[in-house]
Amino acid sequence: MLSYNGHAYMVVGYRIRGNIKELNVFTSWSSEPFMWLEFSSTMQMQSINIY
Length: 51
Hints:
By secondary structure, this protein is an all-beta fold. It is built from no helices and five strands.
């Protein structure tokens, strides 16, 4: 899970293009359900174990 800029996202993947790190996130918005966010050290991420 990712908290960033007042929103919560579920991270579903990542990519590195050149020196830019990007996260593929699920937004739950009907107009844009998935998007790429440039990684920032200010992002607060937490992993969740599902049993």
